[in-house]
## 1
Amino acid sequence: MKVAKRSYDAVIVGAGGAGLRAALQLSEAGLKTAVLTKVFPTRSHTVAAQGGVAASLGNSTEDNWHWHMYDTVKGSDWLGDQDAIEFMCKKANEVVVELEHYGMPFDRLDNGKIYQRPFGGHSQNYGKTPVSRSCAAADRTGHAMLHALYQRNVRANTQFFVEWMALDLIRDADGDVVGVTAMEMETGEVSIFHAKATIFATGGAGRIYYSSTNAFINTGDGVGMAARAGVPLEDMEFWQFHPTGVAGAGVLITEGVRGEGGILRNSSGDRFMERYAPNLKDLASRDVVSRAMTTEINEGRGCGTDKDHVLLDITHLSPDTIMKRLPGIREISIQFAGIDPIKAPIPVVPTCHYQMGGIPTNYKGQVVAPKDGNASSPVAGFYAAGECACASVHGANRLGTNSLLDLLVFGKSAGETVVEDIKSGNLSLKALPEDAADLALARMARLENQTNGTDVHEVRLAMQRTMQKHAGVFRFSDLLKEGVTKIMEVAEQAKHTQIKDKSKVWNTARMEALELDNLIEVAKATMTSAEARKESRGAHVRDDAPDTAEFPNGRRDDEWLKHTLWYSEGNRLDYKPVNLQPMSEDVDPIALATRTY
Amino acid sequence: MTMHRGRVRWHCRRALLELDIVLTRFLERDFDQLSDAQLVDLQDLLNLEDHDLWAMVNGSTECSEARWMPFLGMFRESGRESTIDNKG
């Protein structure tokens, strides 16, 4: 089969915040840059980010990057790499101010500076008191950010391939990445995008869970492609469950609601977070709040007929504050819970929200994997940023507002690294291997010719239910073990999906089948990595690793202070050390400590 | 002008879960019955930014085009019927 080829300096897969920020860096440097995206750029899931972007500007309260770094390391439960975290926190002010100059309409203080509000897990003086660090544009921060970045990219002549779905990574005999294959949805034709550099910015895969705040497009396409190409996935056992998804719908209520004074209450009306996190209370880190809520529900203090949720109360806030600062929240609550939060509290439950793990990268955005005794050897030509990547700044638990910061800092950093690598001559257009398109074409042909196969929707549902039951907020040793067997069975079914409609043009059934190939890689990685990690840390909490005097919170630094690496081939695990050393001498390492709020 | 049904269907994939939920039931129940003319109107509606479309669905802003009103009604009805419906 003849496959069309296109050549670029760089090809970026994904046009959310990370992809657009990386693209901007490349296009403004004069590199020929293609961005592939399965939806129109401003319809990427970054649009949904409500809360804000963290930066220690200190506009509302005293702040500095050292405090931000401490909060992020502590939030990560010490699994984050301290060099990458230092890099991100130091760069925060620069990327936020840059965005302001691109036209991002941040909320303002009366003195004209960017308004900042408090957010869970962010503090002054190394955990002492909450700090106002989140820069926001009402509750449309992600939307405003994406538009500012998209418009800037249009100005910089970035070439967009809209409604193109990337299929597989192309690696040559040296293991170097030389591009991707992709399908144009309008024609169903497969093309090769041959490039000096390939950047993945495809977002997360929150749709592996049954109950998720993620839009349906979040199918982990880059993560799945990387796994199929033999790149390991890092720390995939760590998924953030956002405390406040609307019960029964999954739709997110931003943490900003608690930043503005929202209070979580149980069936007795108690402000239960006072018992779990006496200092930060409702603004404690997301995993702490999610587990507290789950404990309240499990111990019979849940609300409603089935006692299966708790309440988020903002009835004490003035209607003016709600309308001005949190307008979208009111509409969501009315539509999906049938409740006006000005008058009554909103029913909420912890809901899968964010993928902490992903494609392993360093702070430069280079994808790294073990090679010749080096645990973090760069894969030439391959870069990643944003939720699909694991830098690792979020470690075992991400702080709210650090995701928009992550995609800005590491999107830019990946772009800068590519520009340097190309200009210095480190990266050139390597020859395409003979079999460049074979993997993608084989997947397409398999789907085309499958008979007596499985149903895409049923397999996806089986995957989502398996993940929800076996690897949820609380994890149980026996359920995890069973979960590995079950998810491998589901993965077997996913190999035989069949579509009835074989048409080439705009065949959404084919796209969903191809997406499932990516989701299932993520699901296998998550379940296998979670089963193996025999400790509790951050978002990964097991019944057989309880809080004891010897091992507070069930964390076992003696055995498990290490990153998981999962390989798709053979469903195999490996590990690499956590980098506890910051990148500069400006700061001492944040010493291991028990994580309490 | 004839729209490809598959294309319009794909444009029902949104950035916001709120819209995915309200559009899922609509796709199952109402989409196949739409005429070609309705399909063009729907595509125009789907060209709106997610937050603007969502604001019209939840009634916080007024619908700017009369021809979109029937769709918004169908979306709202779908949203009310849906809880978690994992088609994505």
## 2
Amino acid sequence: MTTAALPQVPGTRDPRVSRTSRVTRFAGSPVLRLVVKRLLMAIPIMLGVTVLTFWVLSLIPGNAAQQLLGPEATPEQVAQLEEQLGLNRPGYVRYGEWLRGAVTGDLGRSIVSNQPVSDLLGERLPVTGELVLLAFVVSLVLAVPVALLAAHRPGGVWDRISMVVSTAGLSVANYVLALILVLVFAVQLGVLPAIGFTPLSEGLWPNVRSLILPSAAIGLPLFCFYARFLRGDLVDQMQQEEYVTTARAKGVGSWQVLIRHAFRNSSFGLITVVGLNLGALIGGTVIIEQIFALPGIGQMLLQAINTRDFIMVQAVVVVFALVAVVANLVVDLLYAVLDPRIRYGSR
Amino acid sequence: MKHRTMPSLVLAAALALSACGGGNSGGSDSGAAAPTGEPQQGGELTVLEDTAFTGSWPTGLDPATNTTGGANLPMMQSIYGGLFLLRSDDDGSNGRVEPNQAESGELSADGLTFTVKLRDGIQFSDGTPLNADAVVFNWQRDLDSACTCKPTWPLAAENGITKVDDLTVKLTFSQPYAAVLASFPTSNVNWIASPAAVQQQGEDAFKIKPVGAGPFTVVDNQLSSKLTLQRNENYFEEGQPYLDRLTFQSIGGDQPAYQALQAGQAQAYEGLTTTPLLDQAQRNDQLQVTVQAATSPYVIQLNTKSGPFTDPRAREAIYRATDFEAINKGVFGGRYEVSQSFVAPGGKFYPLEVTDYPEYDLDRAKQLVQELGGLTVTLGTISNYVATQINTALQTQWQEAGIDVTIQDYQLSNLVQQFNSGQWQAMLQTAGAWDPASGVGVAFRFSSASPFSGVADPQLDQLLAQAAGTVDEGQRKQLYQQAADLIAADFYAPFGLAFAPANLAVQGVHGPGLTTVIPAALVNTQVIWDEVWREQ
């Protein structure tokens, strides 16, 4: 039975369509096929990423035992701790053991503290998640209006100002920006905290307040990049595309053409860039969490690398890789939402 | 040696921003600001600790399993208190190890037994007694630890640790060991954990929420991130601790820490090493800066076992080409003292008057290099701010004498690799401790048995062993004097700057080791947290 031609009121279910056929239709939908295909592709990606991480960690001289004991340790002390931590076994055995656990959802225990990795992730993931989300909001909420304003009159005052600001922002590394932000807003003005994280349980405002400076430190350079990128694309659309000429000929106002037509097309490029930049966004948390003393997984990753705790490093890398895979999938799905012509799987 | 590997990015940022730290000019200074007024009860204190050293406790805070215990003195002292504590006068002089939870510690005249008597009536915060059984239980666990902070006791094969009565424990050594008391303050045997809590919770849970008989109890412990403590109402010293709450917050380096102090997010920071920030802090009248007393001076180790420094003339050329006074003045504003041996101003036995120390003499250095037909040296060190600054200065000085110098700074593991390979030539390191025989001590850099020594001299080995085993302090000093003379006479390793990090505290905070000077027993000063207080 085909249901494609049946008229339907939005938001209601067609009583003539059986439950089984709805499931069949959903299972056959191109979007689901895309999702399943991408998730299946994630398996070799995860394997590749974890093997690579393990291999790179094994290339760095020193192991957890030596790092923990420090420069005063004698070779005997190092050997004793290696034995205790199980580091004297071959690398492939340790990786194999980790992988066996990981596929069953058991990420193991930190080789340094012997605490369950899932517990530690559970404690720290929300901090980083919130930081990334806020940085994301900071970058986009600022980038879109600034780019629109600049593209409205290319070469005008706003365009020039935005150009200067973006170029300056792009030239400053986020950790330097972090220290400057602290100096201005925490030390001189005293309006925001310089370090530390206040959990949501202590109130929404204190929680957000504790993350404003760190998220700005990550989000502002990205804002500058997105604003430049979007502005360039918008100007191209406005100057070269025929649909813009048509709209203008029909008497549509310039702001309306910019926002309703050009921006909609330019947003494709922006979404692609945002998706690709997610890695930079998450990567930025590592050093920023360190500077702002935030107990997130970026800080945990750095500590784990410093102590050569490969189990912890693997766990964080798996999380980062999963986020990247899912983010790219979401970007692809967003294309379809933005442009009805795109239907995955259709010819 | 100071194990401080500040992330290079943060360091770069710190340098970039060091000029704009917002310090108030014309302020007062540093040094030993003695506590003023009567200590007051109450208040909270947040103390920042550098992630690269003190602020990293990845294996938890159980003395028997904390492999970084020697770095985590603040956390360990607050939770466990300590059987003995290193105290001194407010200016850092007259350092001595005093009983704390112990009532006394007596070394027998032959140096072969050490008897610890405990104070009566001390309880752990869980209400169980801190008695001889608890101490024996702890010491036996500690000796199995992999931590470099475990004691290097030469215990007798049988009955090394025995319980004498309910409050007395005796250590029996196979050879005299004079530094036993001095080695307590930074060793895991000083921190007694509640055996009942260890057994009830299990080791994995105990290392996160340890139970001791110290001034504070654990509220929350996020490893290497944040440790929140509250007053131990059961504490044996009446009226102490003064603070209601104490938080140790790990932070990524000197610059963020300095800014957090200025922003009022924390009230103290331990272990500042970045010199430009130290200058700034000393000009800031909101802060008290206490430069700690150095106990382990820098030394240029020369590998006398292979390479160019098998030739004594090459070693003498290095002595003659090295001018630490100039480095101290030019790079560190003349802030530190320059030592001619392995003891430093904060340590026991300082100064050792070295006879005929080969002083800086550029002409003699040039002449020696010429005699040798040139000298090519690789000078290494661990990657940290102070050490790399010194090495850069040394390179310039040595080049003036015609020595061809390559400098190299290593991360910890690469440094260890260099020593293990035996192929290294010269290394800038630190040597010694408050008591030269405690912990890794001076033998770590100079004994034939140590993999981190460039010297293999039976006469020096014998002197160091004798000094470690002699009970009489006067005789010990003489033996160390002879060892220092021998090192200088054979040009084994020129000594230099006695560097020590500084502690920062905002105005109105007082406490021994934080706003007064206490010599570092090994690397960092032990603040006595029971006695830290805040003006209300």
